What does this fold into?
Amino acid sequence: MKTKSNYLLLSTLIGGILFNLLFWSERLALNLLIYSLFVVAVTFFNSEVLKSKKFGIYAFAHLFAAVLAVINNSDLSLATYYISFILFVGFTHYQHIRTVWVAFLATALQIVAIPASLIKRMSELQIGNFNLKPIFRPIKYIIFPLIIVFIFTGIYSGANQIFGNYLSSALDNIQATLTKVFSFIFQDLSFERFVHLCFGIALTGGLIITFYNRFFERNEAKLEEVLVRKRSNNKIRTLWNEIAHIFMGQIISKKLALKTEYIVALISFAALNFLLLILNGIDIWWLWLGKGKDLAETNYSAELHDGTNALIFSIVLAMVVIVYFFRGNLNFYTKSKTLKSLAFAWMIQNFILIISVFIRDGHYIEVYGLTYKRIGVLVFAILCIIGLITVYIKVAHQKTLFYLFKINGNIWYTLLLVFTVINWDMVIVKHNLAHSNTIALDVDYILSLSDKTLPILDQNRVKLNYAPNKNLYGSEIAKPENPEYYKRQLDERIGHFKERYEKVSWLSWNLPDWNTSEYFRIEK
It folds into this structure.
């Protein structure tokens, strides 16, 4: 244990220094990959972490996300990087965890609890015959009081302006004193950079030091993936019993509660199937077969926005309703075959509804071009299909809600990595410019996208400067203020990119910025 503590504490210190060197005044790019390689390597050589298949999968997934952050360097790639990092830490330090949601919570707890973990490890630090345990033993008595005092100090400073001013003045004096001390000892180390260094040490410790409390592992281990029939205790009134009793009074008796719930579910699914059948019939006639073209042209934007949002919400709600009714003993009811058939029919109808969402969004893209929101609708529709499939498996094979969370979490994380491979900014700009003669081109929108699109925008200046009057489904494309309006905007964007690119070092290197700099021949 002593050797492990020495190794982890030394790695934490080195990691904090590395964090400070990599990220101070730099953009997030190549430095993310370097830091990830360090954390993964330290974790690999940590004898407390089991080198299992799970470790290999999530280490590879995270390093893949780090590479994508360098290759694409988009907001999505950065979000994927952070998510994959959290999951890597959670699943490698607590390998009995089975869901991504619990891995998130475990990592959050580990990072928040880093003061306790560091004190525990430092008390185990041993150099020869010297150890720090006697020094750190009394610290446990003052940690909690310090946290409480810190919290209430912040509250009181917000509640009392005079107290807040005194506190702010005191902190400014402390900062000025520390700045003088550090500038005297280290010429290049300011107080802000010292705080950044401390943050790096704390973060690195939270990522590589396992928190000794395994609360989430123990509690998740109690959850099952397959439903088991349970004998109900009539003395215990559930929330569902209470709600049902309010609306149905004495109709529900203790012996007929399951039968009553079955009848309620049967009537509900029959009515919902009939209702959705009418809606799908209208969609197939007007939307799929194109009989409602004139209707769609009247208010195309509102029809697509409102209709698509409502349909997506209804699909999510449909899955919630199915999960609710098939949450327990109703799965084992002797007459549940009819109910399951109605539930399966409703799932199929919801799948048809998702096809309508795809068609609506496709029409919208055809008329107005690609945007992140319209791509998001397509992605959400795909997730709804996956959700319906897993809900079907849950009902058909009597799985638990925990199973749904587990399988969907894994699938969503995999899809997140897949979608991050695509450079969406370039896809949007290239598609919209290629179809500029047939869509309502929103030049302001494509000019608002990331700097990686600057070369393709520069190559298509003519399309940005000229927007003829045309009317598509009731939507007229606006002309720019003058022929040079968008050209000036683009030149300003290019100038800002040059200034930004020249300020950072090789640690901020990423492929999109490099391609853009090569196109505009920018020398550092």
Notes: The two ends are 49 Å apart (CA to CA). Strands lie at 126-127, 130-131, 471-472, 475-476. The longest strand covers residues 126-127. The chain has three domains: 2-219, 239-399, 441-520.
